[in-house]
Specification:
The complex is a heterodimer of chains A (266) and B (260).
Chain A: H1 2-18, H2 29-44, H3 51-56, H4 59-68, H5 72-90, H6 93-96, E1 100-104, E2 107-110, H7 111-136, H8 139-148, H9 153-182, H10 192-219, H11 236-254, H12 257-265
Antiparallel strand pairs in A: 1-2
Helix pairs in contact in A: 1-9, 2-7, 2-8, 2-11, 4-7, 5-7, 8-9, 9-10
Chain B: E1 4-16, E2 19-30, E3 34-38, H1 45-52, E4 59-65, E5 68-69, H2 75-81, E6 82-85, H3 89-92, H4 98-108, H5 113-127, H6 142-154, E7 160-164, H7 172-184, E8 188-192, H8 196-202, E9 205-210, E10 213-219, H9 220-224, H10 227-232, H11 239-242
Parallel strand pairs in B: 3-8, 3-9, 6-7, 7-8
Antiparallel strand pairs in B: 1-2, 1-4, 4-5, 9-10
Helix pairs in contact in B: 4-5, 4-6, 5-6
Classes of the chains: A mainly alpha (266), B alpha/beta (260).
Amino acid sequence: MGKLSDAIYEVHFMDTIASKDSPVHRVHPLVKLIVTIAYIWFTVSFGKYDVTGLITMVVYPVALFSLSGVSFGHSIKKLRVILPFVILMGILNPFFNREPRFLLYGLTVTNGMVSGLTLFIKGVLTVLGAYLLIATTRIESVCYALNLLHVPEILVTQILLTYRYITVLLSEANHIFEAYSLRAPFQKGVHYKVWGSLIGQLLFRSIDRATGLYDSMVLRGYNGNFRHSRLSAVRWQDFAYLFVWGAVFAVLRFTSLASLLGGLFV
Amino acid sequence: MSHHHIICSNVSFSYDKNAEILHDISFSAGHDDAIGIIGANGVGKSTLLRILVGLEMDFTGEVTVGEIKVTKKTLPRIREKIGYVFQDSENQLFMPTVYEDVAFAPRNYGLDAEQVDERVKHALDLIGIDYLKNKQPYKMSGGEKKLAAIATILAMTPDVILMDEPTIALDPRNRRRLINILNSLDHIKIIASHDLDMVLETCNRVLLMSGGRIIADGATREILTNKELLEANGLELPFCLQGDTGISYKPAVPHEHIHL
């Protein structure tokens, strides 16, 4: 079950890169979270035919990749997983909206094609924005920031514990499938007749784990309120980071920077 | 005021009326006690520990910890006094780093950030794992996880430490380290284990359980050297004592087949 062990490795890998040190890693998590939310909001707010405006938003991931040292190649590999969903979002647009928009080398480009393309770009950029947040911020810091933003406690705790236990669950699943494959050497996958019992096993083990975990929490004074570690206060550099990115997003969104730059050269 | 910190009087427990797991358990533990609970698989050792911290509440009889009777209302006060180390450390280490995990209980008991930091440092120093402070639990070995799990309960400054099979899955070096740590802690300790050699080294008193009852309660040396009693209850003499009592060591491979 190479795929399960790969998944475990991926979670560990994300933790490792989030623990690195760079100017972006050092920014206060609350500021990074607000900037990410703002980036996603500005990105999705572009009009459905505004491809050129949308492309200028690439400046944020490009800057963050170069400042944080997060591997662009690896991120693109991660994107492969969600790419089908992103494509699926806009794939039907060319069929529903066939109104011609412009001619490109003799080829009629329809409104549907353009809106499909903007949906695709929006999908990729927003996913990259979120990826860059978790690649440069440790999970406990993200949860601390969510807590500061008054996101419901139960949701934040859920995120924190899911992140911690996803690897435990994956490794339990890995053990089950390894034990199965060692006794079914001539089978490529898991026979459909035993899917039910294997999934059932996994479910019971998860319930067992969750019960043990909850017991462990209540024995150490947990009463429904998760108390997060307090991080250092927001510094002036963090405010500067927030202000600069806020200004950049506003300029990119509300001025036609691509046309202005084009005008300078034409 | 009683000199006993834990008093367990006529405790019986069952999930199902027809199958009693614990029957009429009575014992008490004082401030100098390090008690080993021993017995074959399924005799109720872990259940007894779970009752002491109120993880199982449907028992009959009475349990008091530090003069407080264990009831649903008193559980938060009881749990502040008792640190419970789970058999599976994976259940105990649920935070992203060891520091966060050790800080979990002090934060829940309302300590400020400075006091929490002090408690965490002290607990990690006591166990000698300061170097693991920022490590993620999944990157740690079984031995490191066990030591971190002990640190998480020491940060609560409990009066009593309960441990369920603490040496399970530990290599000899980590097991030795754990024994040394246990001997250095002057808390009341109650340890459920099959590792009789560890019990011999860390406990001054033993409760031998069988069929949900306490069969014997006495000095560790006295019980763990009683071959007949141990064997009648599904156990053996500790390995370190087996040579002295005529049980000969039989190598899996005859000596003549070993070529060095």
